Amino acid sequence: LHIEVYLRTLITGRRDVLFISPQTSTAVLNNNFAVFYKYFPFGELLNWHYVLWPILWGTNHWIIYLANSVTKRSMIIDPANSSSSNEHVRALNLLNQALIHLSAPAKKIEFIVRPLVNPTPRQMNDSDCGLFICQYAMDFLTDDEPVFHVPDSQRLRNDISKMVNDVLVLR
Fold first, then answer.
1. At what angle do helices 86-103 and 22-29 cross, to 10 degrees?
2. If both were cysteines, with which of 16, 63, 95, 116 could 78 make a disulfide (CB 3.0 to 4.6 Å apart)?
3. Residues 80, 81, 82, 87: what is their CA dihedral angle, to the nearest 10 degrees?
4. Hey, which bits of the chain come out as E strands?
5. Structure confidence by residue, pLDDT tens digits, 110-168
6. Burial level of 102, CB count in 10 A (0-12/13-18/19+)?
């Protein structure tokens, strides 16, 4: 929940970013379309340039799907692994197809799978995957050929805690 709140806050006011909740990626990967249709942001499909789609991989590991409709690039980045597994490739293809299918015919998109120009930093422990996907998202939104950075873990943890507390206070 904290990661989702932080990413949603990060893109507040940005109409060019389509944020898709983690529940929908889990639903697509598990063929659970009732959950998918409940959480997918259908009303926001027309204007996106970027897609941020966090994925809870397994029970406690965050990875992220990122897509750019202008450069036609999509990717899944796993903070713990430098290479894509067969499961990651399968997930990338499923999520690409879901976006292509749901955006048509109003928005014709296609994705070209190509490797990243710059290496993606990796987490060195078992607890920073959420921070890494937040940093990947921030970097992805700044450039069409993003350079991904190692997050300042302490600063990002403080930012996330503050945002979550602010959201809870507003309730």
1. 110
2. 63
3. -140
4. 17-19, 50-57, 61-68, 73-77
5. 888 777 767 788 999 988 999 999 999 999 999 888 889 999 989 988 988 888 787 77
6. middle
